[in-house]
Amino acid sequence: MPLRVAMLALHTSPLAALGGRETGGMNVYVRHVARELARAGVGVDVFTRRTDAHAPEVVPLDAAEAGGAGEAGARLVHVVAGPAERLEKEALPPLVEEFADGVYAFAQCEGRAYDVVHSHYWLAVEAGALLARRWGVPHVAMFHTLGDVKLRARASEREPAVRLEAERRLVHEVDCIVAATEHERQLLRQLYRVPPAHVRVIPLGVDREQFRPRDRAAARARVAMPESMAADAPVVLAVGRLEPLKGLDILIVALAEMTVRDAQLLIAGGDKRAAAEVARLRAVAAGAGVGERVHFLGAVPHEALPAYYNAADVVAVPSFYESFGLVAVEALASGVPVVASRVGGLTTTVADGRTGYLIPWRCPGPFAEKLDLLLGNAALCAALGRAGAEAMAPFAWPAIAAALRELFAALAAAAE
């Protein structure tokens, strides 16, 4: 009988387009881990809240499951909880219990039992706690971001009290927390007194076949580069959700301070709900005199991102905080050096001076200095890019899934 895992991603589907307000590294993680676990013989059902009334209840995530509901394989299951439409995260806490009931009813109807519950983000962890108790199985949680950490990273951040209370309680209720970095494990100990033995460090991963070094000119020919940009212009790329915590205003002002005056900044990410943030950033760019050199690409499908990384000379991650920083890992695997804030998981993934540079200040000057250094020295840029691609070998998704499978099997065996 294969190991079976109920994976919960309540607030966002792993198949959702990336770059939106609620989509990012967690979506990539859930999708790839589910598929790799299935290929290793684990049965995985990923449960997410239904936001489209016309979507099928069950969607195969892996070829092993294409023929139906087998013992192994990976499936996405849409669960009815509230209206079948996209809701803001702030509206979801009252739906947690209904979501858990929907997952339980699906399992009952199929006669399917699970050995482990694996929950992602605090809303799903709250639902997972209910299900783990009902099923009497171990509960593994991955919070991805923590409200208290976001508040410390940026004073103007706002987090609902219900989230802060839930996270402070749930970190002590689950059987094991998966942290993406040792830094996150230390934060859990410092902020919540979570014993280090209660936390397993397993990073996010990267598809090293999809994200790998490729010819820059060929990549630029493949992607929709801005028409106003010269074909050989130096390119700095930023990827991710558009929100103040990502620090893109710092990067825009840094562009204005750079001595490489023809450098272009491409920003990939953002959906219609990010319109206000785009307007704010455009105003920052206009005020800094670089409005014509800052280009907003909108949301880019994850499968199209490799070409954008390869088209760039440097990838910048100016975030106030990143629990892991998947963009940095994807860029490095693509052979592109990274200039990033010295915060959170970025201190683990970017080797300062070897695969890129870490900036210890939340101000534009140091970013401008390192971006100028790289854009003005092609040999250095190439050397750091080669080192980055080599350094990402341990982050391949099969290795990440194998570590999770080992953890799940040990917890399931201990619970018998």
How would you describe this protein?
With 416 residues, the protein is an alpha/beta fold. The chain is built from 15 helices and 14 strands. Helix 1 crosses helix 15, helix 2 (96-110) crosses helix 3 (121-135) and helix 8 (248-257) runs parallel beside helix 9. The radius of gyration is 21 Å and the shape is globular. The protein starts with a strand and ends with a helix. The model is unreliable at 63-70 (pLDDT under 50).
Order of helical and strand elements: EHEEEHEHEHHEHEHEHEHEHEHEHEHHH
Averaged pLDDT, please? 91
Beta strand count: 14
Number of helices: 15
Helix content: 40-55%
Using only CA atoms, what is the Rg? 21 Å
Determine the structural class based on helices, strands and strand pairing.
Answer: alpha/beta
From the structure above, extract its key features:
416 residues, alpha/beta, 8-stranded mixed β-sheet, 6-stranded parallel β-sheet
